Fold this protein.
Amino acid sequence: MTDQVISVQGIKKRYGEHLVLDGLSFHVERGSIFALLGENGAGKTTMVRILATLIKANSGSAKIGGYDTDSESVSVKKLISLTGQYAAVDELLTGEENLQMIGRLNHLDHRTVKARTVELLEQFDLSGAAKKRVSTYSGGMRRRLDIAISLFANPEVIFLDEPTTGLDPRSRKNMWELIRKLANRGVTIFLTTQYLEEADQLADKIAVMNNGKIIETGTSEQLKSIIGKEKLELTFQDQASFDEASKVIKGQINESEKVISVETEGSTESLRRLLNTLHENQIEPVAMHFRKPTLDDVFLEITGKSTKGVSSND
Ligand SMILES: Nc1ncnc2c1ncn2[C@@H]1O[C@H](COP(=O)(O)OP(=O)(O)OP(=O)(O)O)[C@@H](O)[C@H]1O
């Protein structure tokens, strides 16, 4: 039996005339990484705020650890922690002081606060900067401190709202590593992101959101299989060889790039046949490469939109 730590059924949220969430339903398994993927304004933060008991839905139900986020919010709050757009970091304090303050706010005794602070600073690679004011920290260091703070009370579920937005590629990769480590320790991670690659890299399950609705759910591989199998892309040098090739091989044609994409069915036999056919007709491609479907392809397929809003990482 699966162990669902978050379960959401038919959530609707309206701001005035604007239906921001239009009947969202999904569940998240304990210890997994779940990604809510969507472009700016899709409603991701609104969903997180409902789960974190900060706002109420108009209808539907959301439960964490079996507790209702609306009627049992005190119990829900004990299980969760929230980071990201609500950063609780005090700029004027040092990293160490920030952690100690949170420990005291959680009514932990002096010794526990001290030990846990040292442990978290070490774990998040902040020991060297422990006595420096947060105002001197880089973006990546702040995010790490933010997450360290949110882990002080050992939550079961952690919400990471766009954890890498605005970070440089290196800090982003470090953050991914950290998120994986958290998941390995058994914490359930609810991630929102506008980066396809981030969801692809991290999530056990991805829900794609568009205009307040979840339009597709699955593992990264399941979503990619909507698009089909791996393809071999053959590029031809001139129009004549491209035209000849399009007569003898079956595939998806890209006229302007002079590229034909062929599904290879994953077998070397079909590949050999394809190359033989070209060879017998004295057609030689100038370039060949395999291309796996990406989440970009999936997004385009299911929303009919280009990935201008939802973007691949740089
Ligand atoms: N308090 C509010 N009052 C009115 N409209 C709101 C409020 N909060 C959010 N919205 C609207 O709801 C929509 C969804 O916002 P939300 O922040 O949930 O999107 P998002 O997917 O998290 O995007 P972003 O990455 O920009 O935060 C937006 O059109 C936003 O303007």
In short: Residues 15, 20, 38, 40-46 surround adenosine-5'-triphosphate (CB under 6 Å). The CA atoms of residues 138 and 275 lie 52 Å apart.
